[in-house]
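Hey L., structure's done. Input below.
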Amino acid sequence: MGKLEGKRVAVLVADLYQELEFWYPYLRLVEEGAEVVAVGPERKVYKSKLGYPARAALAAEEARVGDFDAVVIPGGYAPDYMRRKRELVEFVRGMAEAGKVVAAICHGGWMLCSARVVQGKKVTSFYAIRDDLENAGAEWVDEPVVVDGNIITSRVPDDLPAFLREIISALTDSV
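Output:
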């Protein structure tokens, strides 16, 4: 039995997602016993930056905050497409407001800006979106992983082990 047995995690997906930032969390959380569900703007297959397919099992309109314990937002250019879907932004906002784990890596921070959940929070990201996060009211730091309440952020694929350790820890500690 895995540490996350009984937990349900949404991993967001859209075209031009970063392969490692989607698949590493997806598979690592499955390995720990969580039920992991890919959620996209629509229920369809999305292509990564290199063309690798990932199927969204749920469309944004179908994702309910009450059905999940956490949401993971991978980077690449996908978050720019994700934030164009109002229901997906509202899902992330709802998860944050409900105190559930909201984890974003790399450009995933764009979704946190659009969901308006970083005001007064300490976060990290890929350095190119530092201005976006600071303009949204966050305190940006250059660290492998930052945990501020229920918001967990990381910078790049090399940070994935630390990122997943914190996500798993947060889900293990949550009731």
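The helical segments are 19-31, 78-82, 86-97, 109-114, 130-135, 160-173. The chain has one domain: 8-173.

-- N.
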